[in-house]
Amino acid sequence: MRTTVHPIEQESFRRLRARLDTSRFPPLTRAVVERVIHSSADLAYADDLVCDEAVLEAAHRALHRGAPVVTDVEMVAAGITARTTVCRLRDAKSSAGLTRSAHAVRLAYDEVGPGAVWVIGCAPTALEELIALDAAPALVIGLPVGFVGAAESKQALRDSGLPAVSNISEKGGSAVAAAALNALLYTAAPDTAAPGIPAPDTPTNTQETP
Predict the structure, then answer these.
(1) pTM to 2 decimals?
(2) Which residues are tagged catalytic?
(3) CB within 10 Å: which end of the chain, N or C, has fewer?
(4) What region, left, alpha or beta, does residue 164 occupy, with left being phi > 0 and alpha being psi -120 to 50 degrees?
(5) Helical H segments across 95-145, by residue range
(6) Average pLDDT for runs of 10 along the chain of length 210
């Protein structure tokens, strides 16, 4: 959870809410939607993101109890400032029928095991590999970007029944994936806050973050 907000971030959220009414969303969904839009300046994410509040509540509890966070690329990891993350892309190698990103998912799973939160913002093949593994994740933030395989891999994620945040279109990317995870990290754990989940604009340090 964060306790102070950079003035630029405060103004950004003020302008966002002046242009888009997000009050229709339940608390954690609203936090994710707003922070993704804040990171991308793309209001269309309000209708493009696919979130389930009960799934987010369970993932929020897991994160605040210390569930490991895995990213597909270091650009996603760089956007997550409130938690140490695991990214094994540097150690991965491609082979016949296996991309480097997919191999990195296998290496990361060997390290963290079940119950992790996975944040995939770049490679559709990383998301496809994660779906194929019996990884039992606490949450998959699946927001890879691209014209080849991105929308299809996100549809496969939704079809898999895994607890997930995804979006329908081909857009996505490292910044929005990190932003979705940050929304959950920046929202106070229930046992450290006043009753109920605080408003999604309670960020935590004075840095500008996705």
Answers:
(1) 0.87
(2) 38
(3) N
(4) beta
(5) 100-112, 124-132
(6) 71 93 95 96 97 97 96 96 94 93 97 98 96 96 97 98 98 97 89 42 43
